[in-house]
Amino acid sequence: MPGSIVDQFGVTLSDELRLNKKSDVASRKYANFYNENEIKRSDYKNVNEFLIAKANAFNKAFNLDVSEVISKDYYRVKLGEYYEKVPATLINKYLSIEDLISIPQDNGSVVYAVGSYENVNDAVDRQTNLETDDLDNTQIIIDKKGIIENYNILNENIKKEEISINNDSIEIENSKNDVSKEKKQKDIIINDLESKLKSIDNKLVYRIQIGAFEEILPKEIFKGVNDVVFFKGDDNVYRYNSGAFNNYQQAIFYLKEMRDRGFEDAFIATYKGGKRVGLSNVLSSKNKTSIKSLKKDITNQESKISTNEENIFYSIQIGIFSDNISAEKLKVLSQLKSLKTTKINDKLSSYFIDKIATIETAKKKLSNIKSKGFEKAFIIKTRNGKRVPLAN
Prior knowledge:
By secondary structure, the protein is α+β, with helices and mostly antiparallel strands. It has a domain at about 75-165. Helices cover about 40% and strands about 25% of the residues. The chain has helices at about 15-20, 20-25, 30-35, 45-60, 90-95, 120-130, 150-165, 170-200, 250-260, 280-305, 325-335, 360-370, and strands at about 75-80, 100-105, 110-115, 140-145, 145-150, 205-215, 230, 240-245, 265-270, 275, 310-320, 340-345, 350-355, 380-385, 385-390.
């Protein structure tokens, strides 16, 4: 069946055979990267120097542009500002929001905020949405390349100056009319946001916890990584997270990149509705849903495709990959349409595409997959859910 652990001849692979194929899985470019840039922890005085060296080697090997981008000033919604520990319940609630960022300040505090808006009205709409979602005491701020200004205070000062300079009653009346129109438009947007709030609440977010450290890491470690968020917990340990995904496969690809960058203990953490949830429970639930969906799809196809009376389908077994698969190949895999994975164990996953209606379509897909470097990919044929020889 699709996702079975087999080779190109349909022979089931034992654990020993699978492990012996590790070297075949890794790409040449990735192998060359490690052969030419072997970096050992023992060669460096501390973890920081080791991680900086790994980051530089990774960025150089994959030609990543790590030059600093001149960013604009953005309106954001500040969730909180902390000098010391952040409560665990609040950490989980924050990490459930996809676009969360942490902004270290010169005074030793860390500001946690969401959103990147060029228009203050958009920030206000987001603030209203968050407050409806039980996140109180939020505040609109202006992020000027890491320097935070309180928008409310700034806005009040500007208004006072305008009133003292412009004391014309007609101008004031026009201003009131404009505010009234703006308020009506804002109410429309807010109502729309509130109607969508329930679906946002239950959105599943996969994050990569890249490590736990006793001190704040230097920013040089994160060259080429733009979405790092860190918290200081009750145990005085700083936990760093990177990435926010709704798709498990994308999270796996990003996890591999983080490990390649030197964060060897990185793992996937899952959040939903303001709480951290067990990954195994999430995957089990998703698998049950997928099975139901697959059965429904097959039933629909049986009723719609009269020419496929024997329920014959084709799938493409791309490969069984271990943790040694390169970041480059993971990126290629992530771009394949209808890609599916089956977790074999902690180290091995099967990658395949199934539910292909005709052999002609399957051959075209196979040719495309092989052209992308997966030359050992092959076609599997099934009849009524059971594998049959391709020649039949």
